[in-house]
Amino acid sequence: MTEYNAFPAPSRDLCGTMHVHRRLLNESMTYRAQRARIENRALQYETGRRASVRSGVVTIPVVVHVVHNPGTPAQNIADAQIHSQIDVLNWDFRAANPDVSRVPDPWKPLVADIEVEFALATADPHGAPTDGIVRVETGRTEFDSHDGVKAAASGGADPWPSDQYLNLWVCQLGEGLLGYAQFPGGPPHTDGVVVLHSAFGTTGTAAAPYDGGRTATHEIGHWLDLFHIWGDDDGACSNDDRVADTPNQAGSNVGKPAFPHVTCDNGPNGDMFMNYMDYVDDDSMFMFTRGQRERVDACLEGTRASFLVAHRAAPAAPAAAPGTRPVEAQASGYVAQDSDVERLLHDTERLTREALTDIHDVLDLVGHRFGG
Amino acid sequence: MTGGSGTDDTPAPVTGTWVHAFEEDTPAEAVYRPEGRPLPPSRRPRRRLEFRPDGTVTEHRPAPDDRLAEREGRWERRGPERVAVAFPGGRGAPLAVSVSGDGDRLSVEK
Q1: Which of A140, A242, A249, A356 counts the most CB atoms within 10 A of its CB?
Q2: Cis-peptide, bond into residue A61, ω within 30° of zero
């Protein structure tokens, strides 16, 4: 799990190091506790002990912050480029993208309509009419992945309340990055997604092979709690994306792979590299799975439930039935079971172990001498 | 002991920032090029290794949310074209690094 770069630089200043580490450790502990709760819920959905109760399509209000340097006018992308991005999102998260037909036959039954749509906000946080696009000039020539673009104080744009809007920042990113996200459970003031302007939408400055709008699809997948399909284990085959219907695969794929690409003994079909959560080119990714939808459901009915409030006010209807949800879980409220208690105890032990490891690490760091 | 002051007569230059040119990887090594070398844009974030003269090194590596996460370590020379990198506190295995004499190519043993 990401730890917000919570590893301080080596320092001979014991007190300073400990002070910084204590702050980072506290933040890290809060985040880890949040993540443990989120993972518990996702597991309950995956194992069928809890099921989605939302019905119909959820529409997420979006604010796009275009942070541009006047010295490079191209960064101030046109409204049409932004609209082209919203269109792609609404195809991809509804399995309405034309290229979904390219999903290999064995996996066609797994294709999922996530039933999430996106719309540029029509009211700002004060209720005033808006087109959902904020344009901010910056003196910065580029941003890195340390969230400078997310605050006016650091040359970016402050977010709108992240429990009411999906904040999408579009800017010049350095270090070759196309975009980055924040998983649910992180700090609200940095919650959202950042995308390089030339990997955003399908028109204007969007440049091949990232001119299909799929960078935002991928990053919003993270924002809705989806992990990379290979499990971020550097090719070890030891970790997966916590989604049962996506094959375990060794590492990320890039470019335009040929089907099948077998790793981790996952033959005959191999890696599901055409999943939005791999690293292939825009024109080579075109599906989410039913298992991924379950994780999104767990997220939308858990950490990001604020986006469902309006929908919950609507009359309840039977769940639109993609055939993936156990019937019993729709019937009544959730009752805690012994296995839940065991899992909570397990998580508590794990958090304690991680905290002790952090403390051990910082003591090592302070006392570290090369090779010694 | 710091890494920047190697005792070899003509050590290959290592200080500066190196960017992973994964297109050039072999089964045995990961290949890095000096920052500034044109590399194609990539959805897979490129790792970066930042060697400083004081013997510290920062590795920027792709995180699960596509950020570049940092970890700090130390480096020292092990020969004219060999460098060892260590990360404290069990934050990662040591790296065995080779640098070409002209400072154009750095490789990390897999």
Answers
A1: A249
A2: no
| Domains defined for chain A, CATH in brackets | 14-46+339-367 (no CATH), 58-233+286-296 (3.40.390.10)
Query: What pLDDT is attached to residue A21?
Result: 57
Instruction: Please tell me the distance from the alpha carbon of residue A62 to that of residue A181, in angstroms, as a whole number.
Output: 15
CB A260 within 8 A of CB A287: no
Written as six digits, the tokens of A146 are 């340390």
Contacts 24+ apart (CB under 8 A), A199-203: A199/B41, A200/A77, A200/A81, A200/A82, A200/A85, A200/A170, A201/A77, A201/A81, A201/A82, A201/A83, A201/A84, A201/A85, A201/A88, A202/A81, A202/A84, A202/A85, A202/A87, A202/A88, A203/A78, A203/A80, A203/A81, A203/A84
A90-130 confidence digits (pLDDT tens): 999 999 999 999 999 999 999 999 999 999 999 999 999 99
From B34's Cα to the closest Cα of chain A, the distance in A is 13
- Give the C-alpha separation, A361 to A110, whole Å: 43
CA distance B57 to chain A (A): 10
Task: Give chain A's contact residues with B (Cβ, < 8 Å).
Answer: 1-3, 5, 7-10, 144-146, 175-183, 199, 207, 210, 215, 218-219, 222, 227-228, 232, 252, 254, 279-281, 357, 360-362, 364-365, 368, 370-371
The pTM (predicted TM-score) of the whole model is 0.82
The secondary structure element, H or E, covering residue B32 is strand B29-34
Which residues does residue B58 pair with via DSSP β-bridges, in sequence order?
B50, B72
Q: Which residues pair with B33 in a beta bridge?
A: B19
**Active-site residue A219, yes or no?**
yes
pLDDT in tens, A13-53: 445 555 655 666 677 888 999 999 999 999 999 999 999 99
Torsion angle of alpha carbons B36, B41, B43, B47, nearest 10°? -20
